[in-house]
Design a protein that fits this description.
Strand order of the largest sheet: 3-5-4-6-7-12-13
Largest sheet: 7 strands, mixed
Order of helices and strands: HEEEEHEHEHEHEEEEHHEHEH
């Protein structure tokens, strides 16, 4: 028995050591700590001598960089000669932090940190943003703030941008969880699994989503599935109104919110848009 306990303790120390090493390897830091990311490069690209555009991929709430559609998008972009960097927001995936302490402002700060890192890479020329669901809100507000500073990205894509989060928090119902919007608890549980903290529930009610997004004046593509049961179509329509003639809204017939029914079509639309907007021949 003592041998078994000794073995288990040694195993624990090994995992603890690995976690410590991983934490030390973070070279992009957000409000909740280290940000985990993956870079996908086009085949044959020499990062020391060549240049190519890069797209920053931003996942949705409770998701991660390793859940589709992010890996599929990264693969499709690489085949078209476009690099990408996908990352986990704080408290998600392999990034440090806790979901309970997530806010949109913190995720914007994460996106800004990744943007600065991408800009520092010697092989990166133009930069595009892509955001899915809540990641679309973050991408739009980050792009707006960068535009105000004269640093706007070169193109934006939104997949079912989840701006409904503001109305959900104002109405006291987020997914299947109900709460008092004026005095929410320390946290709520969505589907009994994921914690959303009081700070998120209160601060999201005050977001100026479209006002901030409107500062961006570049090319925008908005894709929304006709069978999306989570983010209503009016969110994408409102974004289209915000950007006016600079934006194109396309409905993907039969697609759901998680991009599992028409994924190849969505990837194709995204890749073609970025090829044109980022000047890839």
């Amino acid at each position: 028995m003592k041998t078994l306990y000794g073995w288990l303790f040694a195993l624990f120390l090994t995992f603890a050591s690995l976690l410590t090493i991983e934490a030390k390897d973070f070279d992009v830091i957000g409000p909740q700590g280290g940000i985990s990311y993956k870079v996908s490069l086009p085949e044959g690209l020499n990062p020391e001598t060549d240049k190519c555009p890069m797209v920053i991929l931003m996942h949705g709430i409770f998701s991660s960089k390793d859940y589709n559609p992010m890996p599929a998008l990264a693969k499709g972009l690489a085949k078209a000669g476009i690099a990408s960097i996908r990352f986990d927001f704080g408290g998600h995936g392999k990034s440090e932090g806790e979901k309970q302490f997530m806010t949109i402002e913190k995720e914007i700060a994460d996106a800004m940190a990744i943007y600065e890192y991408a800009k520092s890479l010697p092989y990166v020329s133009e930069i595009g943003f892509l955001g899915h669901s809540q990641g679309g809100v973050v991408a739009s507000m980050t792009a707006g703030r960068l535009a105000m500073a004269g640093l706007a990205p070169d193109a934006l894509v939104f997949l079912a941008p989840g701006s409904v989060i503001k109305e959900a928090c104002q109405g006291g119902k987020f997914f299947n969880a109900r709460f008092d919007p004026k005095d929410p608890p320390e946290f709520i549980r969505c589907w009994g699994l994921y914690k959303l903290g009081r700070e998120y529930l209160l601060s999201t009610q005050e977001l100026d989503i479209y006002g901030t997004a409107s500062a961006y004046e570049g090319d925008v593509l908005i894709l929304h599935g006709t069978r999306d049961g989570i983010v209503p179509l009016w969110c994408s329509e409102r974004y289209k109104e915000t950007y006016g003639d600079n934006a194109t809204l396309k409905l993907i017939d039969g697609e759901n919110h998680t991009i599992t029914r028409r994924r190849s079509q969505v990837v194709s639309e995204v890749v073609e848009f970025f090829r044109k907007s980022l000047g890839v021949i």
